[in-house]
Amino acid sequence: MRIRNHIVEHAGFQTDGCAATIACGSMATELIRSKTIDEALSITGHDIAAALVDLPPGNLHCAELAAGAVRKAVLDYLELRRQPWKRWYRT
After folding, report:
1. What range defines the domain where residue 55 resides?
2. What total number of domains does the chain contain?
């Protein structure tokens, strides 16, 4: 993610998951682009599934996984802003 002035300017993802996981990851990046970090934090798996329209109920966990990844990325950004020295110790 690239965040400037608390706005998500760019988001991307990598996965080796199934087609539903790829679709959910892609939709998550679309949903958070141009949003504030607070808005990005509020994205849920249900938001992602609703935006995809045809996501089978059995694949809702893929949307939840994508929403969790967004939350983790935003929280990581906030932590690194608070304690920038941690950037050097990331793996």
Report:
1. 2-89
2. 1
CA–CA separation, 43 and 40 (whole Å):
6
d(CA 73, CA 43): 12
CA 89 to centroid of chain Cα atoms: 22
Q: pLDDT tens digits for 48-70?
A: 999 999 999 999 999 999 999 99
Output the DSSP codes for 41-53.
HT--HHHHHHHHS
The alpha-helical segments, DSSP class H, found in 6-88 are 19-32, 37-41, 45-52, 60-82
Q: Give φ, ψ of 36 to 5 degrees.
A: -75, 165
